[in-house]
Amino acid sequence: MSITIKEPKKKLCYVLPEATTNTHMKYNVEFLAHLSQTVDLYVIIEKGKKPQTLMQTTAHVALIDSRYTILRIIKTFLHLTNARIYGYKKVYVHYSFIAAFLATLIPGSVVYYWNCGMPWEYKRPVFQEMYERLVYKRIDHLVTGAHVLINQYAEYYKFNASKVVIVPNWIDVPLFAKKYHEADRNSVRAQLNILPESKVLFFVQRLSERKGAHYLPQIMEAMLEDVVLIVTGDGPYEATLIKEIQERRLENKFRMLGRVVNERMPDLFKASDIFILPSEEEGMAHALLESMSAGIATVAFDVGGTIDMFPAPFSRYVAPAKNIAVFINHILFLLSNENERNILGRALFEGVSAYDLPRVLQAFKERIID
Predict the structure, then answer these.
(1) Is 288 helix (H, G, I), strand (E, B) or coil?
(2) Domain range holding 89?
(3) Separation of alpha carbons 170 and 20, rounded Å
(4) Residues 141 and 207 both lie in one domain
(5) What is the mean pLDDT of residues 289-305?
(6) What predicted TM-score, i.e. pTM, was given to this entire model?
C-alpha cells in the first residue's frame, strides 16, 4: 500500500493597494482568488473591503484601510513582518511604493514590485522622484507587463535589466466575450439616446491628458454628424473637456457617462463600432484587453506595450504617439469600411488568447512562485 504525501503549497505575500470590484482592480482580486487554489497567500489590502471570494480560499487577508499615512505605514509594516514570521519569504507588491519600500526593510524578504507605465515621461516633485528611485534600487525584482518597457525602466532608474520579470496583464477572455455577446446592442444604444444607424466610438479611461482626454473634441470635430462618442471615466480634465465640448457645440456627439462600474463594460463595447485609446502614457491597458476580448476594431497610439498587443499585420492601426492627424485618419477609414473593422476585430480577438487568465496564471507561477 503506497501513501501519497501531499506537498505543502508554496507561500507568497501579496500587497494590493485597493480591492474594489467596480474598477479594473477587480482583475487583481479575481487573479488572487484563482492563485489561492494552488498557492498559500498572505494578502495585504491597503484600502477597500475584504473580498468574499478571497476570504473563502485564503487564510490570511489583512485590511489596512487607514486614511492617515503614518498609521498605514505602521500597519503595513506590522503585517509584512507577521507574514515573514509565518514563513512568507516572497513579497509581491502591486503598485504601492510605500509597501515595496517597507518590504525591503524586512530581513530575508525577496521583493517583487509591479509597475507598468511610462513614469519617465512626466516630471514629478524632486522628493518623490528621489524616493521612487530609492525603491527601484532596493527591490529585488521589477515586474512589468511588456518586453518593450524593460530597457526603458532599467535605463531611467539605473538598474540592471536582468532584474526585470515579465508578467502581462490578464483577462478572463471567455467570460468577457460571453457577456459581450449576450448584451443587446440596440437596447444599450436606446438607453444612451443613440440611433441604431449611428456609428459609435468608445473611450474608457481616466479623464486626464496622459490618457488622451484632451484629444476627444478634436477627434469628434473631424467626424460626420452621425458619429457619437461614448465617454466613461472621471478625472482632472473633466471640467475642461466639458467646456471644450460646449464651446465647439459638440454636445450631440458626446455621451458623457462619468465613472461606470466595470460590469457594464461589455454592454458599452456592444453598443460601439470602434474603441479608441489615444493615451500618451500606457503600460499595458486593461481597456485594450477588454476591447480585444469583445472583438472590437481599435485605434491606439504607439505608447508602452500597446503595439505589441496588436497582431503584426494590423499594427498599422497603432498611430505614432501624439500624432492625432494619423489617429483620426485611421478612425475615418475604419468607419467607412465595415469589412475592415470586422477583420481587425477578429484579429484582435484571436490575439487576446495570449493574455487569457489561465496562461498568465501559469506564467506568474513559473516566474514568481517557483
Answers:
(1) helix
(2) 10-171+356-369
(3) 17
(4) no
(5) 97
(6) 0.91
